[in-house]
Design brief:
mainly alpha
Length: 334
């Protein structure tokens, strides 16, 4: 009898659940027509095809802007997604070869043209904030290098696409406003770019590298907008593979961050070190095996330890500072 009651109760619960699901389904179906009615104004608010006039009409007044549609990256009609590529507007705009052209970025231009060039009836990027202007750009440029743009360091600091790029007045490659990347980056990162003029530096000023050789300015998963890896060390070893490891004896500053000892943009010290040896090493090693006294000129006359000031200093003996695989390499000796 108890088992029969248990079975009956379970059956009642299943039936109640089924009735509840049916009621919810009917509610959703009943609400669907209302939702369609609510969405209709939004669809109708979108600009119809008839609101576009085509690039040819735009160039009647803005002929000086035509180079972007003829020779620039946006002129590549063979590449799907570019403003001059054939689009779904062909049914109504066969006379314009179905390309969006200028209106792909500036929006429908019929009202603007009929109003005699009223600037309030067209999207003008000069009147938009950097973040607002970027919304147009990321509608197409949201893949590969631009994947992590939203919320990136530049985006969160109100630096937008138009802050660095110019479609109609580009001076360098990639539609940059300046001739080189270094000149452009220096407009904000002056202290960093100045380091490339120091004695030991990244080969940027010789043109062998540029800022984007290391950084993805459009956003990255790594710190400091670095192109690869998840840390400074992981990125540096993409080029300096001999320092990758793993090693039997690891040096903590190396595995944590190469920039603990090196300034990657430039330094007046050997090997782009942030300080001269032995003072660099003594930032951490102040009481290890050697006298903890700071090595300075007075030792030249009072101690035989003065030889540690000359030349490569600590690395004369401790050459394997990036890690050693020798069984006796705890002290990173040569």
């Amino acid at each position: 009898m108890d088992s029969f009651r248990t079975t009956l109760a379970r059956g009642g619960l299943v039936a109640a659940f089924a009735i509840g699901c049916l009621a919810v389904t009917r509610t959703i179906v009943a609400a669907a027509p209302g939702q369609e009615a609510a969405m209709a104004p939004a669809v109708q608010a979108a600009a119809p095809h008839a609101a576009y006039v085509g690039a040819a009409t735009c160039l009647n007044c803005h002929e000086e802007r035509g180079a972007a549609l003829k020779t620039g990256p946006h002129s590549h009609a063979f590449k799907a997604g570019t403003p001059m590529a054939p689009s779904g507007c062909q049914a109504c705009h066969a006379e314009t070869k179905a390309e969006m052209g200028c209106e792909g970025c500036h929006g429908p231009g019929k009202e603007h043209a009929e109003a005699g060039g009223d600037k309030t009836k067209i999207r003008r990027f000069g009147s938009l904030s950097p973040s607002e202007a970027s919304q147009t750009c990321v509608s197409c440029h949201f893949r590969t290098q631009h994947t992590f743009w939203a919320g990136s360091q530049h985006d969160s600091r109100n630096v937008g696409c138009t802050s660095c790029h110019s479609i109609h007045a580009a001076a360098g490659e990639k539609q940059l406003k300046t001739a080189t990347q270094t000149q452009l980056c220096a407009t904000c990162h002056r202290t960093i770019v100045n380091k490339t003029m120091k004695f030991n530096h990244m080969p940027v000023r010789e043109g062998k590298l540029q800022c984007t050789s290391c950084h993805n300015v459009h956003g990255a998963q790594n710190v400091k907008l670095l192109n690869a890896g998840g840390s400074v060390f992981e990125f540096c070893v993409t080029c300096h593979a001999e320092k990758r490891g793993p090693t039997l004896w690891e040096h903590a500053p190396v595995t944590e961050s190469c920039s603990t000892c090196h300034d990657p943009h430039g330094s007046n010290n050997d090997r782009m070190l942030v300080a001269k040896q032995p003072f660099l090493c003594q930032r951490c090693h102040v009481t290890s095996r050697h006298p903890p006294t700071v090595y300075e000129g007075n030792l030249l006359n009072t101690s035989t330890n003065a030889n540690k000031i000359y030349g490569r200093s600590c690395t004369v003996c401790h050459q394997q500072v990036h890690g050693s695989n020798a069984p006796s390499g705890k002290a990173f000796l040569r």
